[in-house]
Specification:
37% helix, 13 helices, Dihydrodipicolinate Reductase, domain 2, Alpha-Beta Plaits, homodimer, 3 domains, Rossmann fold, seven-stranded mixed β-sheet, ten-stranded mixed β-sheet, alpha/beta
């Protein structure tokens, strides 16, 4: 199956496709540590070549080409590291790799979100591996943790801050008092946000990652299309400020929870209690918190992106799979479909912000509709005396379907309500 | 090497020694999930027997005996799970196991602290494994994370809350306003602290765990004897209160840092900034935070003790090593000795609490000695007007040797200083 070097040590051969931000980090770590891995772990890793669109940027002593498929065909490596980005090209590459017996390691969550089912099935049929630690939460070794450290555990819930761009924006809105647009502009200036930030700020990127993570944790396919996704664009400075005053911090939380009736899966801005460790995960950091029957709550946090943080995850996959070739078992990525429930079946406390006219009886009218829908109010707060008046209510635990029914009625009262009501769930418990 | 069952699936056989709190958790998970592991992972795990001092407590369908060595000799399993506690008995057991080709999985940090060097060497020579995920930080899969997820990383620093008892006491002192003795009594009542709490409250237990963790992270032996260890017994409510007022929370922090001149390794109460995620790790939770060149800061938190949390780590080790039998490489636990520097060579900001008489000129005298030792003061606070007056100073970054020299001079001034000065380092940066 594998080659052996001059002293009888097995040689594991790999090719690198893509030498941009992450790929160059991988090259730096590889050339720094390959002798160390050989000495310390008995692992002889040979880089057979690099395929990239800009060969002149590769400064390490290795064969460089622009033709990735030719490189794979010629060298037939054990692993290909796909760090090129896009979807069609890496998908073709994956098919070529699997066809010839090469395993795939990738940082490409868009690829796995679009083509994951086919990729995982092709690899499984050929008894090959797909490593994607780098596709979720950058430097946080969350995939490996779910597969090994928590292998004996039954998951009940997981929640994560899986998108660094939006976490950076929310942190700046809070700490600098900036509005959304100013915080976004700053993130773009620093390279934390793309020119078109839609995928990040609308929660799509976090949803792709949640799909991968939840499927693995619950061993059921939770497709992106089944995840309720809300972004951060409708949040205002007042929401951030009031959340803080109430003892919370707003985070774009990606969550999946097992319920008897089915999974609840969502990406949405959430008020996280300042006593919850995830509330202190600020700026571009990512985090994942989980609950299992055995361990109770656990949390991992770290950098979610960047050259070396993401490269460290690619290298970890390479070392891990290189060492376990010859194992009896492979890692499963294809699961039965999970039964995902509509978001309305979930229960939570809620933060509600109503934009109302300045007239007596408005609060009574709102409270009455909420009451008719079995929603009880825990506290009320009011901001400014200029119209629209901002009325903030925090509810006791309520069924989300009831809340939505109530808000539909309330928001239709155009004589007293000036803008659509903002409703955000609360995360309180550890 | 291994047996094969009737459909050609490899069978991995293991024995359990000790069926107390953790052992019974292991039995519960095993009997719940063994069919699942077989179906899902192709892993057929066979429990060959349980040795325990109280056979009547084992209610699962398995052979139970009081004679552990006889069980090992008769069954010759692939793995023995040592959950008996103590040192001499499990050490004998480990030697019997290695002699006959059985790998060891243990939750026993005292054993590894006392006999680790011999155990790791015996196992290595026989090409066997030693799993000890459960010995450090209970449910947090930190050993596996250091070995796999961060395999490509160079550690710069690690800090942890590795003892749940002291973290519970410190949390109660803060949130309930209790003094140390009352908080300890409550911890004992709830079973979080032993009748003789010395090992926990003096930092010995955390030091044992730091020794294991730091050795693995830095791939250098950091023996317990080289770790500077201070407990929490001299802390007073006023320290907890002032820390909070200054924006910090006191944690018993176990730390190891790589410096050009050598490692700095300590267990000591530390003021952790409320902005640092580890400050929110409360009650009996544990946490580990690390810095590597590649990832920057990362943190893991979760339950550090208890039946199922610790059992989940034992099971994770069992599943992991059972699957990787046949790997090319083994996991190394024997390292060259690390060069550990005296604690005085470290630099930090410090919180200082002086107990002084109520006389003019006292502060000038203290400040003058600090100044002569190159320690500059960032802020000053004073509590109460009754003697002894509590004067709190926060310093700028200072060499600890200079601080100790200064405090020796100051504490000798018995005409103005009533008790030994309390000095605690600050942890500020992420």
């Amino acid at each position: 199956m594998c080659q052996v070097d001059s002293v009888g040590m097995p040689v594991v051969r790999f090719a690198l496709v893509g030498a941009g931000v992450v790929g160059s980090g991988v090259l730096d770590i590889y050339f720094r540590d390959k002798v160390l891995w050989k000495d310390r772990e008995g692992l002889d890793l040979e880089l057979v070549g690099v395929a990239t669109r800009t060969p002149s940027k590769v400064r390490h002593p290795v064969e460089v080409t622009t033709d990735a498929s030719d490189l794979l065909h010629r060298t037939r490596p054990d692993f290909v590291l796909e760090l090129a980005g896009g979807i069609d090209f890496p998908f073709e590459l994956a098919k070529i790799a699997f066809e010839q017996g090469t395993s795939l390691i990738t940082a490409n969550k868009a690829l796995l979100s679009e083509k994951g089912e086919e990729i995982f099935k092709l690899a499984w049929d050929k008894k090959l591996e797909v490593g994607y630690e780098a596709a979720v939460a950058g430097s946080i070794p969350i995939i490996r943790t779910f597969r090994t450290g928590l292998a004996g555990c039954r998951f009940e819930k997981l929640s994560g801050i899986l998108n660094g761009t939006t976490n950076y924006i929310l942190t700046q809105m809070e700490t600098q008092g900036w509005d959304y647009h100013r915080a976004l502009a700053k993130a773009q200036e620093l390279g934390f946000a793309e020119a078109d930030p839609t995928f990040d700020v609308e929660g799509v990127d976090a949803g792709h990652k949640l799909s991968l993570l939840a499927s693995l944790a619950f061993q059921r396919k939770i497709p992106f299309s089944s995840i309720w996704t809300e972004g951060i664009t409708k949040l205002q400075s007042i929401d951030i400020r009031f959340a803080k005053q109430l003892g919370f911090r707003i985070k774009l939380l990606a969550s999946c929870q097992f319920m008897e009736s089915g999974f609840l899966a969502s990406v949405r801005p959430t008020l996280v209690s300042l006593n919850h460790p995830i509330s202190n995960v600020q700026l571009e950091l990512n985090a994942v918190t989980y609950n299992t029957i055995e361990t109770g709550m656990g949390l991992l946090t770290g950098k979610g992106a960047g050259s070396l943080p993401t490269a460290s995850a690619v290298i970890a996959d390479l070392l891990y799979y290189a060492k376990r070739r010859g194992d009896w078992t492979r890692e499963r990525n294809t699961f039965e479909a999970g039964n995902v429930s509509p978001i309305g079946t979930g229960k939570s406390r809620f933060y509600l912000r109503f934009s109302t006219v300045d007239k007596p009886g408005v609060l009574a009218e709102i409270a009455s509709v909420l009451g008719q829908n079995s929603i009880s109010i825990a506290s009320m707060h009011q901001d400014s005396s200029e119209e629209p008046i901002q009325v903030i209510l925090v509810t006791h635990s309520a069924l989300e379907a009831n809340l939505r029914a109530a808000l539909e009625v309330i928001d239709a009262k155009v004589n007293i309500i000036k803008e659509n009501t903002v409703s955000l769930p609360l995360l309180q418990d550890l």
